[in-house]
Amino acid sequence: MPRQPRFSREDIVSAGLRIVRTDGFEAVSARALGKELGTSSSPMFTMFKDMAEVMDAIRTAAEKTFVARMKDVADYFPAFKEFGLRFVAFAKEDPNLFQMLFLGKGARPKIAENIARECLGSAGQGYGLTSEQAGMLFRQMWPVACGIAALCVMHPGDFPEEEVSKTLSYHFSGIMSIIKSGKEVEDVRPQLKELKTAYAND
User: Fold this and answer.
1) What is the CATH number of domain 9-60?
2) How many CB atoms lie within 10 A of CB 153?
3) Under 8 Å CB-to-CB from 200, ≥6 apart: which residues?
């Protein structure tokens, strides 16, 4: 009768997540996993084809963690505000998981982007936006939320929740005002000061 494996796939993936949280995604290796589980590296390859498959499973588990954090976010109004606050909180509280999912090599930003798009879509409906206007709202707000979250990975103390909330509100309100006005924002291109002065004197 074949010997039952001592560790399951879930045990190995959980160990991988612990390593990512502590030391970052780059620290995950067969040897590091074996050390975390108190064994050699060989059990990894009775459960997984290779390390690429292990890494993929760890990313999938991290995605599930993120999605769980976003559970019921669409029940809030405006939903994107709640999403933005949770997205930034995730970056602060789990910076290495955030980097692995959204910033590092092999990142999977689509999972967050899809949730954000859904939240902004519902906000658009609540404010009476057309689908085109809701799309514009997403294109302007999504980089703002990503930028704040990325900065929080490096400097979490610089962005308290109250400031993040206000920043999201300022941008959301400003973009909504522009969209509702129906006016185009002037695309101001920078010029050399000397050139600008010369034009003014002509």
Assistant:
1) 1.10.10.60
2) 18
3) none
* Residues 88-116 pLDDT 10s: 999 999 999 999 999 878 888 999 999 99
- Per-residue pLDDT reduced to its tens digit, 133-186: 989 999 999 999 999 999 999 888 889 999 999 999 999 999 999 998 988 888
**Which part of the chain is CATH 1.10.10.60?**
9-60
Global pTM reads 0.85
The residue assigned the tokens 């034009």 is 199
